C-alpha cells in the first residue's frame, strides 16, 4: 500500500482494554476538543451573522440616498459624520487590512458567497462535533461499566472477608 492509503485508515481503540485512568484522560481530551469546537462554531456563527448584516444593509440601500448624511464607523465605538456620494461603488473589508471596491450587485454577491462558505464550514465542524460527542459518550459508558464492575468486585471481596 502507498503512504496515502495508510493515512486514510482510522485507528481503532478497544476501550474495554484501557484502564479507568486512561479512559479518564481520553475523556478529558475529548471534552477539551468539544469545547474548542464549540468556540470555533460560535466564532463562525458570529462571522456569518456579520456577513448577513452587511448583505442586508446593501439590500436596503436606496438609490435616492445621494448626499444622505450617515455615521461612518472608525472603530467599534467611534463614528464620524459622512455623506453618501457614490451610490454604486462600495469598499469592502475582505480581511487582514485588505479592501476591495465593488459595485452594488457584486458586493451583494460577495456577501452571499461568504455566507454560503461559512455555512459549509459550520456544517463540516458540526459533523466533527457529533462524532466527538459519540466517542465521548462511548468512553463515558465504558468508564461507568468499569466503575460498576470495580464496585461489584469490592462488594464481593467484602462479603468473602
TrEMBL record:
SUPFAM superfamilies in alphabetical order: Prefoldin
Secretion signal, residue range per the UniProt entry: none
Keywords, comma-separated and alphabetical: Chaperone
GO biological process entries: protein folding; RNA polymerase I assembly; RNA polymerase II core complex assembly; RNA polymerase III assembly
UniProt-listed Pfam families: Prefoldin
Superkingdom of source: Eukaryota
Gene Ontology cellular component terms for the protein in this record: cytoplasm; prefoldin complex
Gene Ontology molecular functions: unfolded protein binding
Annotated coiled-coil segments of the chain: none
NCBIfam families according to UniProt: prefoldin subunit alpha (TIGR00293)
Family: Belongs to the prefoldin subunit alpha family.
Matching PANTHER family: PREFOLDIN SUBUNIT 5
Protein name per the record: Prefoldin subunit 5
Species assigned in the record: Glossina brevipalpis
Amino acid at each position: 500500500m502507498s503512504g496515502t492509503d495508510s493515512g486514510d485508515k482510522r485507528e481503532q481503540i478497544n476501550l474495554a482494554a484501557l484502564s479507568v485512568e486512561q479512559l479518564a484522560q481520553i475523556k478529558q481530551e475529548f471534552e477539551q476538543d468539544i469545547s474548542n469546537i464549540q468556540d470555533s462554531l460560535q466564532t463562525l456563527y458570529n462571522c456569518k451573522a456579520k456577513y448577513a448584516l452587511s448583505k442586508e444593509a446593501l439590500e436596503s440601500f436606496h438609490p435616492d440616498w445621494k448626499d444622505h448624511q450617515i455615521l461612518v464607523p472608525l472603530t467599534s465605538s467611534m463614528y464620524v459624520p459622512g455623506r453618501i456620494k457614490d451610490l454604486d461603488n462600495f469598499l469592502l473589508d475582505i480581511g487582514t487590512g485588505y479592501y476591495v471596491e465593488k459595485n452594488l450587485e457584486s458586493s451583494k454577491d460577495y456577501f452571499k458567497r461568504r455566507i454560503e462558505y461559512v455555512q459549509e464550514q459550520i456544517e463540516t465542524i458540526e459533523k466533527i462535533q457529533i462524532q466527538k460527542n459519540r466517542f465521548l459518550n462511548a468512553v463515558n459508558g465504558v468508564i461507568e461499566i468499569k466503575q460498576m464492575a470495580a464496585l461489584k468486585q469490592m462488594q464481593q471481596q467484602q462479603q468473602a472477608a
